[in-house]
Amino acid sequence: MVQRARVTSILFKRDLVFTLYNWRYYTALFVAFLASSFILENFLDGIREDDILVSAYPLNYPLYISIIIISLYLAILSAVSISRERERGTLEVLFYGPVTPGNFLLGKYLKDLVLGIVALGFCAGYFYLVSYATNLGFTTGLIKALIMSIFLISCVVSFGLFISSITGRVKSSVLSLIAILGAFLAVQFIHAALLGLEREGLSMPMLYLRQTISLLFQGINWVSPFAFLNRALESVVLESWPLYFTTIAYATIYSVIFIVLSIISMGRKGVKT
After folding, report:
1. Other C-beta atoms lying within 10 Å of the C-beta of residue 194
2. Are 36 and 117 in contact (CB under 8 A)?
3. Over the stretch 17-42, which tens digit does the pLDDT of each residue have?
4. 246 with 170: CB under 8 angstroms?
5. Model's pTM, two decimal places?
6. Other CB atoms within 10 Å distance of the CB of residue 120
7. Residue 131: CB atoms within 10 Å
8. How far is the C-alpha of 190 from the C-alpha of 188, rounded, in Å?
C-alpha cells in the first residue's frame, strides 16, 4: 500500500511539474480571462448606457465562461494523457515497474485536478481585482461557484481520462472527445430551441422530434460533465443549499464511476496502441 502511494505520488509530481512549466497551461488561462474581460466590458457598457444595474451576481456569468474554457483545456489534457504515453512507448516502460492502472490513473487524475484548483486560484485573484476596480460585488455566490467548480473539474477530468483509456492514439482521443462533447452540446442546444416553440403550432413529426430530443437530453444530463455546470449555476442562483450539496454528491459519484471505468478499460486494453 505504501509503495503504491509512493508510485502514485512520483507520477503525480512528474506530470504536474511538467505541465506547470508548459506555456499551453498559461495560454489557456490567458484566453479564459480574455473572454471574461470581453464579456465584462460589454456588461459595463450596458450599465453606462442604461445607468442601472439589476443583478445579484454580476461576476458569475464571466466566471462561468472562464471555467468552461479552463475545463475544456483540462478535458483535452486528460483525454490525451494515456494515449500520448501509449504512442511514446513510455506506458509500456512504466508498466515493467511497480505501476498499475490504478496508480497511473490516480496520478493523472490528481495532477489534472490540482491544475484545475490552481487555475481556480488565479480566477479568484482575477475576479477579486475586477471587483476592486469596478465596484462589482465579489459575492458569496461567486465563492460558492468557485468551490463548486472544483467538482465540475473533477467530472471533466475523469470523463477525459475515460476517453483516453478507450482510445489508442492522441488523434483519436481528441477527435472522440470533440465528437462526444459536440453531440452533448448539440442536443442541449436543440432541446432548448424546441422548448421555445409553441406546442400547438408544431406538426406531428416535430412533436415526436421534441419528445425524442427531450428523452436524449434527460439521458445526457447524467453523462455530460457540463450538465453539472448548469445544475451548479441553478443552485447558486436559487440559493438552494440542498441542490448545491446534491450536485456536489452527484459530481463526486460521477467522478468515481468514470475513474473506475477508466481503470477497468485500461487494464483490458493494455499498454499498446
Report:
1. 19
2. no
3. 888 888 888 999 999 999 988 888 88
4. no
5. 0.83
6. 21
7. 16
8. 6
For 81-110, letters b (16+ CB in 10 Å) and e give bbbbbbbeeebeebbeeebebbbbbbbbbb
For residues 157 and 54, what is the distance between their CA atoms, to the nearest angstrom?
35
Q: Output the nine-digit C-alpha cell for 47.
A: 450599465
Tell me the chain's radius of gyration from C-alpha atoms.
Answer: 21
pLDDT the model gives residue 116: 92
Q: Cell match 508510485: residue? A: 7
The three-class DSSP label of residue 233 is: helix
Rounded average pLDDT per 10-residue block, the chain, 273 residues: 73 82 90 88 72 64 85 87 79 72 87 92 91 80 86 90 84 86 82 78 79 84 76 76 86 92 82 60
Indicate the SS3 state at residue 270: coil
**Residue 67, exposed/middle/buried by CB under 10 A (0-12, 13-18, 19+)?**
buried
